[in-house]
Amino acid sequence: MALSKDQITEALNRWNRAWEEHDLEEVMELFHDEIRFENWTGGTVEGKEALRQAWAPWFANHGGFRFTGEDTFVDEEAQKVLYRWRLDWPSLEKGFEGRPETRRGVDVMAFKDGKIIEKLTYSKTTVEIDGRRVPLTP
């Protein structure tokens, strides 16, 4: 089942609301059972249940996070999305733990059967803390 551009956009709007509410189960609703997720460190998780388990501690322990969509490009024919985001959360960077941090990146997502089957996340190599650019620590 291919989604129209409007259906993809509406699905992403519902997904964004779920992120705003820190609702893991609702976030997971848009993922295909065979989801392949690669995070900004290159770590990979395959399968919806494995992703739910990987994200559960993050949702439980980082309730202060907030994603804001900055731009979205939808390719209806290819069933792909490029989603540019901003993440505001308590920093985990050494020496800045708990201080407000802003991180920017993009997700490249592919849909299959109306669900996200692949989500590749890319992040800038610097973050913003206290109004200045800070390089990410390895």
**What is the total tally of β strands?**
8
Counted up, domains total 1
Q: Number of helix segments?
A: 3
The largest pleated sheet is described as: 8 strands, mixed
> Helix fraction?
25-40%
- Tell me the structural class: alpha+beta
Shape field: globular
Radius of gyration over C-alpha positions, nearest whole angstrom: 15 Å
Strand content: 35-45%
Specify the oligomeric state.
single chain
Low-confidence stretches: none
The first-to-last residue Cα distance is 41 Å
The CATH topology = Nuclear Transport Factor 2, Chain: A
Helix and strand sequence: HHEEHEEEEEE
Question: Any idea of the CATH class?
Answer: Alpha Beta
Q: How confident is the prediction overall: mean pLDDT?
A: 94
Indicate the CATH architecture.
Roll
